[in-house]
Amino acid sequence: MSEWTLSLTDAYKKRLEDIVRDDTERKGIYYHNEKKYWIIYDYAGCSELLNSHYVTKNRMLVPLTLFQEEKALIERFLSLINQSLIFRDDCKSDVVRLIHQNFRKLSCDEIIERSFLSVMDKKYLDEHDLISLNNTLASSLVGLEPDGHLSDHAYNVGMLFDGRVRGKEHFVDIARSFMAVFEACRGITSGTEPCNDIQASDRAIAYVAAHQTTMQLIVATLWAISHFRLSVNADNVREIVVEASRLYSPVLSVGRVMSQDLSFRGLNLRQGDRVMFYTALANFDPGFFDAPFQFIPGRNEKPLSFGTGMHMCIGMGIALSFASSFIARTSVNGSLRNVRITELAEGISALGASRFIIGMNCHELAED
Ligand code: HEM
Questions:
Q1: In this structure, is residue 2 part of a structural domain?
Q2: pLDDT by residue, tens only, the chain of 368 residues
Q3: Which of 23, 141, 232, 300 has its CA 20 to 30 Å from the CA of residue 132?
Q4: Euclidean distance between CA atoms 13 and 199, whole angstroms
C-alpha cells in the first residue's frame, strides 16, 4: 500500500493563494474578467454583504432551447429547484423543523457503532464506510430509508452546487438525479397529507446538502487530530470539530447576485452582477483570526464555514453534533492510528477528501 498522502492544509492554502493572486490591489474584492463575477474573500466583506439586502440568490436560468427531447424534464427540474428553500428569500421551510425532529429521534451512537463493525477485520475505515454512514444520516433526517442508489443521485446533484458540472449531458443527468430524489421525497407524508411540490423539493435539497458534508467534516477533523497530534476528550471534542470546520470547510464559496447597485470599497457593484463569496477562505483572514493556519480549538471568533445570513446552513448543529459523537467514538483510548488522504474532490465551490484511509487500533475499540 502506498504511503503517499495529501495535506488538507496545503490544499486550502493553495486555493487561498489562487484567489488572492488576482486581487492586485489586495482589497478583498475584485472582478474576475473571465468568470464574469465579483470575488469576495475576506471576513468583513463576506459577513457584511451576506447579511445585507444588497444580495439575493441567483435563480437558475438555463435556456430551454438547448434541450430537445429533455426539454420537459429540464423545465420541471428548474421550476422545482427555483421554488426550493435555497432560492427563496422570504420564509423558512418546514424542513428545518423536520430534520431537527428526526435528528432528536435518531440513535446516533447506534448508527456510528454499526460503521465500526467492519473495522475489526479491516483495521481501517475508508470513504465507502463514511459515505454509507453519511447516507444513513441524510436519509434519516428527511425521513427516507437509506438507499445506495438515492445516495449516488444526491452526490450527482451535489456536483451542480459544487461547480463540477461536466457539460450539457451531465446537466441532464443531474436533472434526472434530482427528480429521482424529489420523487422519493414526495412519497414521504407530512402528517396525514402527502408532501406538496415545495415540501418535496425542500426535502430533496436538504437530503442533497446533508450528503458527504458531514463526512467531510469527520475526515477533516480526524486528519487534523492525526496531523496536529491533538489529544481528544469529552470536554474538548466539540471545540476540535468546530476548529476543523473553520480550517477545512467542505463548502468553499456561496454565490449570490446583487439586488441593487452598491458602491463598496470604492468599487461599483451593479444590480444583477454575480458575486462569489469565498466563505471558507474568509476563515483564514488574518485580520479576523489570529494565526489563521494554526489549529486553536476554542477560538471566540465565529467561522463562516456554514455560511451566514438568510441562507445559513440549517444542518449546522446536526453536523457538529454528529461529527463530535463520531470523533469521540473514534478517539476513545487512542484508537485512531493515522489518517491518509489519497485523493481530493475539488470544485469551484467545494473541496474535500474523496479517498482516504482512517487507520484504527482495534484492541482499544474492542475493549468498549
Ligand atoms: C459540515 C457539514 C456542513 C457544511 C460545512 C455546510 C455548509 C453550508 C453552507 C456554507 C450553506 C450556505 C449556502 C449559501 O449561503 O448559499 C449551507 C446551506 C444549507 N445547508 Fe449545510 N452544511 C453542512 C451540513 C448540512 C447538513 C447535515 C444539512 C442537513 C439537512 C444541511 C442542509 C443545508 C441546507 C438545506 C442549506 C440551504 C439553506 C438555505 O438556502 O436557506 N447542511 N450549508
A1: no
A2: 445 789 999 999 999 999 999 999 999 999 999 999 999 999 999 999 999 999 999 788 899 999 989 999 999 999 999 999 999 877 678 999 999 999 999 999 999 999 888 787 889 999 999 999 999 999 999 999 999 999 999 999 999 988 889 999 999 999 999 999 999 999 887 666 788 999 999 999 999 999 889 999 999 999 999 999 999 999 999 999 999 999 999 999 999 999 999 999 999 999 999 999 999 999 999 999 999 999 999 999 999 999 999 999 999 999 999 999 999 998 876 689 999 999 999 988 999 999 999 999 876 555 54
A3: 232
A4: 39
Q: Report CA(307)–ligand 1 centroid distance (Å).
A: 8
Helix or strand (DSSP H, E) at 274? strand 274-277
Pocket of ligand 1 (CB under 6 A): 85-86, 99, 141, 205-206, 209-210, 213-214, 217, 249-251, 254, 279, 305-307, 311-315, 318-319
CATH code, domain with 22 = 1.10.630.10
Look at residue 308 and tell me if it is in a domain: yes
**CA angle, 119 then 141 then 93, to 5°:** 155
User: Cα(33)–Cα(15) distance, rounded to whole angstroms?
Assistant: 18
pTM comes to 0.94
Any domain includes 1 = no
Look at the chain and report how many structural domains it folds into. Answer: 1
Residue minimizing CA distance to atom 42 of ligand 1: 315
Residue 213 lies in a domain: yes
Dihedral sign computed on CA atoms, order 46, 317, 58, 278 = positive
Residue nearest to atom 11 of ligand 1 (CA): 313
